[in-house]
Amino acid sequence: MFCDDVWKRSARLIRAIHEHPFNTALSAGTLDRERFAFYIVQDARYLEAFSRALALASARATDTEDAVFFAESAHAALAAERTLHAGYIEEFGLTADDLAGIGTSPTCLGYSSFLQATALADPYPVLAAAVLPCFWVYQDVGTTLLENTAGVEDHPYRAWIATYSDPAFAESTERAKNITDRLAATTDDATREAMARAFFRATEYEWMFWDSAWHRETWPTAEWLA
Ligand SMILES: Cc1ncc(CN)c(N)n1
């Protein structure tokens, strides 16, 4: 099956995501607030782009049930996930002015633009493969963090871990995988290859997203602009 195949081929990258200092510190509860705040602010922006890509997937879906799934996921990305973010933004005491003053990072813009370009210009099966890591990688990391932090009371990132280890999120991930497998099984070789490339690129961006938060990435050219 397509999903099993691309997941196996991404094994080293997935391991690198799990072993990234951002995620090991998140798991240990030692991740500093500045890095997490940076991540949350970028992620709120990313989720808008992700939600739009899902809405476009819904519009382009050839199967009604798939259209419903993508539309519901587009809503969930902005509703459920953003509620999580809003909670942390409040906890960190970030005001609207603070948020407006934090620029969108190169990686956040790159990932968001990649998803939106794929949604607008690539075949629908390629779009399904491009959004799949956004479900699968988070579900994988979320459930691993839940296992690793079981029994830890007052974990500072418990709400984040709970969101992505939730059985309902696992169910959505399963649905996204089934849709992608079905599309891969019924398309031509060239599109299947493009699907694999889109899956790998999105998974690379997932690693980069955590890495950019760890380093609080900025534009290297910013100082030359007024
Ligand atoms: C960067 C990123 N990728 C995926 C997810 C999970 N929807 C997220 N919140 N942020």
* Order of SSEs: HHHHHHHHHHHH
Query: What proportion of the residues is helical, as a percent range?
Result: over 70%
Unreliable parts = none
Percentage of residues in DSSP E strands? under 5%
Shape: globular
Bound molecule kinds, no repeats? 5-(aminomethyl)-2-methylpyrimidin-4-amine
- What number is the mean pLDDT? 95
The CATH fourth-level homologous superfamily: Heme oxygenase-like
CATH class value: Mainly Alpha
Gyration radius (Cα, Å) is 17 Å
Number of strands: 0
Largest sheet: none
A few lines on this structure:
This protein has 226 residues and is mostly helical. Helices cover 80% and strands 0% of the residues.
Describe the protein.
With 226 residues, the chain is an all-alpha fold. The chain has a single domain (2-13, 33-217), classed as Up-down Bundle (Heme Oxygenase, Chain A), CATH 1.20.910.10. The chain is 80% helix and 0% strand. It is built from 12 helices and no strands. It has helices spanning 2-9, 11-19, 21-28, 33-60, 64-78, 80-91, 96-101, 106-121, 124-149, 158-165, 167-185, 189-214. Helix 2 runs parallel beside helix 12 and helix 5 (64-78) packs parallel to helix 6. The radius of gyration is 17 Å and the shape is globular. It catalyses: thiamine + H2O = 5-(2-hydroxyethyl)-4-methylthiazole + 4-amino-5-hydroxymethyl-2-methylpyrimidine + H(+); 4-amino-5-aminomethyl-2-methylpyrimidine + H2O = 4-amino-5-hydroxymethyl-2-methylpyrimidine + NH4(+). This is Aminopyrimidine aminohydrolase. Residues 10-214 form the Thiaminase-2/PQQC domain. Catalyzes an amino-pyrimidine hydrolysis reaction at the C5' of the pyrimidine moiety of thiamine compounds, a reaction that is part of a thiamine salvage pathway.
